[in-house]
Amino acid sequence: MGKIHKNRCLLFRFPNAEKMRKLFLLLLFLSLAFSSALKSQLPNGLTVIVFPRKEVNQLVNITVVIKGGSLVEKTPGAASFLLRLMPLGTKNHTKDQIQRILEDNLIDLQTEVNENYWSLSLTCPNSSLGEAIKLLGEILFQPLFDEYDFEREKRKAISELEDISSRPFISAYARLRESLYGTGHPYARLINGTKESLQSLNLEELRSLHLTYFQPQNIFLAIVGDVQQEKAMEEVTNSLSRFPKGERISFSYPFYYPLVRPEVDVMERPSTFAYLFIGIPLPGLNPQDYPTFEVIATLLGQGTSSRLAKALRWRMGISYDFGALYPPFLGKSHLLVWAVVDPLRVEEAKEAILNEITSLDDLGQKELE
Question: Half-sphere exposure of 294 toward its Cβ, with a 13 Å CA cutoff?
């Protein structure tokens, strides 16, 4: 009926849950750019944005973004592990009770950690909005941090990390980011940390990280879906305004020196395929550029009608897989374009990808639509 998410949360899969989460991110940044957006702020400083969307038909998505992420951690992997642990128990509910609430109310709970923020996303029928917001408040502000759960999840995380680190895509992308940002930069390291860093992690560091950053003044909450704005604001106010304000957190994003010349880095390992990665420095996430860079990534490498699909797969027949993405970094970001190809045809693939990137100046209206 349901299944366990990678962060150990019971969830139900709604077909458009991921699309709604991405829609939330886009609307969040647009709301910061246009004063006409439907947004408010609770007395404790928590920012609330509501977007009624009748076309999703009785579904609603609640997404919170907490500023911080791996950028503010002391031990690599601490930010990711914190959000792994938080949904496993709260002051008022055990893990099993939380799973029962999710199941009874058909709530899909997903979590995400990146370099700039933590995010929790709940998708549910609009009739479950109140229960979803109540549970969200407990997870955000009253996590249990049980010692037994901590030790068990640490063992699992280390085991999973060994598998993740052995994947060619992960190791190649990590090397590319180190080339872009430099050793020691928060954006250059793996979000899940290392075996050594996780082994050194302790509960006190997680409690301190949570206490410092998971406070209302540091949180944006958006509700998108088939819901009345007044009803949504009432549910949020009733459930979340009781939590204390805390202190405002100031952020500074580490500077890095972008590449001023082309740089080639080769990693050799036994493999049937060659993984080709191209990274292009870009501005960080902001309301003006975010839609543009998302469209560029989509046109280049997302889907069977993308430019990489047509060039590498259909015309040349040299790519087994491909893609493009724009990481939503608030500091300096980049465009990643990648392809999995025959090792003997790497140069052909590289030239084809660079040609597609430089030809973006010739975009037509039909392709944009």
Answer: 14
C-alpha to C-alpha distance for 264 and 176, rounded to whole angstroms: 9
User: Could you tell me which of 177, 73, 184, 179 has the C-alpha nearest to residue 118?
Assistant: 73
The total of other beta-carbon atoms located within 10 Å of residue 28's CB is 22
- Widest CA span of the chain, in angstroms? 62
Alpha carbon 129 to its chain's center: 23
3-state secondary structure of 341: strand
Output DSSP code: residue 174.
H
- pLDDT, averaged per 10 consecutive residues of the chain (369 residues), comes to 34 41 52 57 94 87 94 94 97 96 96 92 96 98 97 95 83 87 83 93 97 94 91 95 85 64 70 89 85 90 90 89 89 90 92 90 56
- Cα gap 193→169, rounded to integer Å: 16
The dihedral built from the CA positions of residue 227, 231, 235 and 241, taken in this order, carries a sign that is positive
Locate the DSSP E strands across 218-290: 219-225, 274-282
Task: Look at the domain 3-240 and name its fold.
Answer: Cytochrome Bc1 Complex; Chain A, domain 1 (3.30.830)
Cα–Cα distance for residue pair 13/17, rounded to 1 Å: 7
In CATH, the number for domain 274-368 is 3.30.830.10
Length of the chain: 369
| pLDDT for res 127 | 96
| CA 234 – CA 12 distance, rounded (Å) | 26
Distance in angstroms between the alpha carbons of the first and the last residue of the chain:
38
Residues of the chain with CATH 3.30.830.10: 3-240, 274-368
Distance between CA atoms of residues 116 and 133, nearest Å: 23
The token pair at 3 is: 């299944």
Closest CA to 225 of 50, 31, 102, 32: 50
